[in-house]
Fold each of these.
Amino acid sequence: MSDLSTPLAPPRYRPVPFGVTRVNLREGAPGVRYLQADLPLGAYARRVTDYLVHWAEVEPERSFLARRVQHADGSTGNTGDWQHVTYAQALDAARSIGQALLDRGLNAERPVVVLSENSLEHALMALGCIYAGVPYCPVSPAYATVSQDYDKLRHVLDTLTPGLVFAADGARFGRAIKATVAADVEVVLAQGAIEGRPATTFQSLRNTLATPAVDAAMHATGPGTIVKFLFTSGSTKMPKPVINTQRMWCANLQQITLSLPVLAEAPPILVDWLPWNHTFGSNHNFGITLHHGGTLYIDDGKPTAALIGETLRNLREIAPTVYFNVPTGFEMIAEAMKTDAVLRRTLLSRVRMFFYSGAGLAQPIWDSLHATQEAELGERIVMSTGLGMTESAPSAMFCNSPDVRSGHIGAPVPGMTLKLVDVDGKTEVRYRGPNVTPGYWRSDAATREAFDDEGYLCTGDAVLWIDDHDIHRGLRFDGRIAEDFKLSTGTFVSVGPMRAKIVVAGAPYIQDAVLTGLNRKEVGALLFLSPACREVSGLDADAPWAEVIASTGVRQRIQAVIDHLARESTGSASRVARALLMAEPPSLDKGEITDKGSINQRAVLKHRDALVQALHDGNAPGTIVPAA
């Protein structure tokens, strides 16, 4: 019999170096402290095109980008059937496309708007813009292909007044373009046509003869040059255009590398679906590939029931060195690896680190991944994360040891100062550094509102120490201050931590939760369930979702979760007193969900207010309450 007094051996991890291991904390005014990494930022590039020029000279034939061959009928190529773009080809395309943009007189007042999922053409168009010093804006494809009213797309176009709109496919984006793009704005298409609307072919831009003028334009760009506009996902308001400069992007790539030096040990190989209209996919993942001369395999999959198969197919074929995803994606991969030996073998063969962002990763998913890794490899792969936002290009903090748990966000990146401010019983983290945006395009009022009197960006994110006795371990996430609310008793409900508890307790059946109860006497929850519920519903695979969540099997599972949470609660602010299962998924048009699949609490509460009121008034059919 084992000696239970003997402590368990610490888990063994595949070795990964961490850059920021110590931090400095100083006191400011009452209720204010300042936190910095004990590691200097050092020099960084003046422009991201410096990386492109460097790798095109040093490794011209190395593959920079790859995408599985796309056939005219919408099908994709077979195993090994990838179209590659080398660094030399990427630079050549950037010069030609950049020349074409200069010939059109485009600039920050008349930028380029990109309507496209991730693709080789999208990437080359972006590189052409960056090379020529013409700002561009990659727009969420859903604004044009899923939205029915195009309100957000119109908002983007009205705000930016583009001189050129690029779309990947006339058939898919044509209806939105005809409805929203002014007739005097040039449209460029990678393929297809739009009935009744003249368009330029992408290939004609690609065939433009580059002149010394485009190289001069590139050399004229510098740290203050605007590279792109990235729109925030928006909450109850329309998205805001965040200015992204060369300084922001280059500084952050250096900060990322110093914090995660594993990225610089060898050219990274990425298999990535994260959308380029979002800072995680574009600035972070596309950026680190370019910075370190790596290869990015564009994954046309996505963590949805319909598209996860493509992601798994790609990961069976291409072994990444670092793998990035959102929590929902890791949840699906964790489940697939339990039975897919080829997936396990390929994905785990050379990966040095897993990294998630966008929302909290439930600890059971984390544990499942580690269990699979230990069974396959005899060791764990470090699962890391951090915190940032579109306005910080994006990375502000990273975990700095293998000992990471759900909710940890770690230490500040070098060269950035975190301002910790006591606000309503919580601690808000604010940012200042070279990676922070100068503001929002054509919105002076929003810019003034975003910064405090010392010039720190107010994030609205609340934090706590991971270990009160060891500040060098860094911080953990404590929710969004704006999401917290008071019950009628005056008791504060801390939404972030409570939501995380619900998701963990309900794994794998509860995908997300929106908490209710503002000015009410008790906390309620709107629960969005995961596809795993179909397995316990007892219904056919094609049964309507409303019938799935109403099934006895599903309701019994969720009832058990609510009962467990009630037993574990310590008071009214931590007890879910009533819950509803959502048959209607979160709406993109209403801003209830982002491209990455994370829930916008405020938008859900706004648009489902009648349901919330019925829940708390006792008039909502199907309400689940804790057993007596």
Amino acid sequence: MTGKRRKFLAIVAGTLLVACLVPWLIPVPPPPARGDFGTAVHFADGSLMRVYLTRDGRRRYWFPLEKMDPLLVKATLCYEDRRFFHHPGVDSLAVLRAAWQNLRTGEVVSGGSTITLQLVRLLRPGRRTLPRKALEALWALGLEARYSKKRILELYLNLAPYGGNLEGVASASLTYWGRLPTRLAPAEVAFLVSLPQAPVRGRKMSMKARNRVLRRMRRAGLISGREEARALKAPLPEGARPFPFKAPHAADAVRAMFPGRPHLTTTLDPLVQATVETAVERHGERIRTLGATQAAAVVIDNASREVKALVGSLDFWDTADQGQVIGFLARRSPGSALKPFLYALALQKGLITPVTRLEDRPRAFGDFRPVNFTPRFRGMVPAKTALALSLNLPFVNLLREVGKDAFLGFLGKAGLSWKRDPGLTAVTGGVEISLLALTNLYAGLARHGRVGGVRLLKGTPLREKKWIVPGAAYLTLQALECENHGMPWRGFDLAWKTGTSFGQRDAWAIGVTPRYTVGIWVGRFDGLGVRGLTGAEAALPVLLDVMKVLGSRPARFAPPEGGLTWIKVCPKSGLPAGPYCPRTEMVPFPRGISLPRRCGWHRPYLVERDSGYRACPWKAYRRGELTRKVFLVLPGHAPPPFSPACGVEEEGGEVRILSPTGKTLYLLSREGVYSRGLPLKGVGTVARGTLYWFVNGKLAAKSRSGETLFISPPAGRVEIRVMDETGKWSRVVSWVDYVAATRKDRTQEKPRGPDKIGHRGYAG
């Protein structure tokens, strides 16, 4: 090869290399960011709920190319840039053709602009001068080098001007046809394709422009002659249509939760949403008559945990009563609406059965003096009845027994939070919660006790965790059906609970069917109390109306498979039958839960055969003068009396734990003389009677009253409960840790005294 030839080839190769590299070296206008587009919120079926303007007030909505009508895409290429897929951004043939036509006619009759060049002008607007056109050509080459043809076409169709503040084919289709450009008629396609060339024109000129596009579509084979003839007769759109504005509170809430997304497809069902909105609006006048001004509603599908309807207020445009507040997200006091979850926790801990009698009598807890909604007190009430009637005293007592911290921790696992310790008011409205969160908690009962976040966006995975044992969740729903007397409501099971907050500021009603969970709130957004406002009167009628129109399939709550067992209880106390209960009955109970308590209402006493009085402790009786008899002794009542001649005061007393002490850390050794373990010592109400010790809810040991025994509990928090033969009990919580024995510990032969058992504690 000669030197000249090599030089020529080097020049050619260098020229080609520069030609290939130049487009990559040209700085190009950046494409718009995701936040530069408005947000479109959709129902679950894809129909539009609401659309939002961009930050600069434009109607510009991103719509993917693959979802656009193929005829629209092909017609755009046919009319704007037929060689789009064959040029590098600048169509040399089109430029030459336009130059020749313009020179021949002496005026500008044609242009050589490509879709890429038009996109450049949309991304970087400027005056149309010759130097500017040369720069736009370089930018077009740069865009083609960096982006695929499909990406450039997608950007153009989403940014092209369609008149006024309309940008992008999606906003134009919504404005003129009321729907997204997924499927359009040929006349509709031609009208949209003609707009970017001259977005503002008269009706006559618009008709000519549309028909010109139709003729070109027919010549290109995109439509048939018959389709063209039919499209030419089609009228133009009458004008701009109003954009969809449905479920505005739901749209606002979802957009705030998931900012920056151009499209949000929710789980809301448009039919259910419209049905619930109509049902709530029907009660608007009645609600205002009661003194309230607003209402909110939530519907959750139990099978999927998807939200199907959200109503935020009675009227979005009611400025006088703050109608644009999103009512279903406002945190308010739920009144007694959290009682079912204390009931479920008590079942789960084995502290009650559904028929355990709870005490409903006046009682003060320091400055807290709970009363029932009605002044009547019912004495000893079955637990499920106390829940169905929403009695306050039994549940405050139950909260003390379960433990306030245990209940708050239980609620915390479900995602609830609070700013300050609510104390014993936690079960009567001391914890604030939103309607959406509360309804979601009740949906967990229908989902066999699983708890998880609600699903507001379609396609969001269902994430749940165990919260309530399935048997306890099912029995809680059964208790909430008590007001229906166990009969199906309008052909399907309905469990419901109402609540009224302190000061009668908020009225609640939550209902659960096998298919839906519905929550209703009624009150005022300004927080003022309304005299006489109650959940039963204000919110429950709305709930029942919504349930009536929604219906339920399936119609019955299905018991959890393997989640229940049947246990013997005393019909009087509702606790597992003790050895002296005269008869028993079978009741359902969560499987796998141990019951540390037994019925202590039936107690045996030695009585004088002739007088019927209890035997005197100091008197010696002859054979046959005494007999053993079982008495029913209710809590708070005295046992059978001694004979007046005995001179004995009536016994009272309580079960006391002497060791371990509460809030104490015990350091135990696994070796040597300090390995005897944690000492258990207590006294009961029966001298030398039997004490039953439960560690973390499981029976661990038995002892005599006053006797010391030792156990080796697991390290960490340890809950100790003791119960005597009469059913009275006591409880402490301590902490245990294990340490290695020292040499002195190993050599010492015996402990220094009966109470020196190798532990040391300090106040926790």
